[in-house]
Amino acid sequence: MKTIGSGQLPFGVLAWFGIVMGTVSCAKTPPEATPAAEAPVSSAPAPAPAEPAAPVPATATPAASATAPASPALECSIRIEPKIKLGQSAKVHFRLAQRAAQTVYVLNWRTPLEGLRGDDFSVVRDGTEIPYRGPMMKRGNPSAESYLALEASKPLEADVNLALAYDFSKPGHYRITFRGKIWDLVTQQSEIPRPLDKHQPVQLTCASVETDVAP
């Protein structure tokens, strides 16, 4: 081996040392990259999504009423003498009125306005109902003459003798009630007469009256 001067290493030793150091340098694991800092997680709950505003409902327009105008109210009353002598007529005075400004037209059927034509009165003597024994009529379509104009200032009135159809031949206390109705009430004169299937009846309410029949 060739000798090298003092303080110097032989060339072979230097070559071997360089190989070893190179190997160590290549095998060294590179340092790991520092992980990026994670964003802090908030402990507060996430805000709830805003609810959509409720739609404002449109204002409904009421539909036009299909109801026909109400008929004028009719006022009915009957009157009889408080005392009747046995054998005399049992005359009842009937009155029909209305307060509306408009004239209306009433069918006179089965009212005292045409006489006794049916069992339209209740006659009770001392608690016993007296049967009707008068005429009963079958009807066809009415004529215009059967309708009477009823004005606000002019009531319709008529007298009827109940003794023609009810038994007043015994003394006693009699209670009389009109239980009939207006079979057709018309508000337009141009509509009269109306056939039976077009009639618009109106119930009447008349206060009862009382009389005493004595010898």
TrEMBL record:
Gene3D superfamilies xref list: 2.60.40.2970
An individual GO BP term: proteolysis
Annotated PROSITE patterns: PROKAR_LIPOPROTEIN
Biased composition range(s): Pro residues: 46-55
Region of interest: Disordered: 30-66
Amino acid composition bias (Low complexity), ranges on this chain: 30-45, 56-66
Keywords: Hydrolase, Protease
Superkingdom of the organism of origin: Bacteria
GO molecular function: peptidase activity
Descriptive protein name: Protease
Naturally occurring in which organism (per UniProt): Pendulispora brunnea
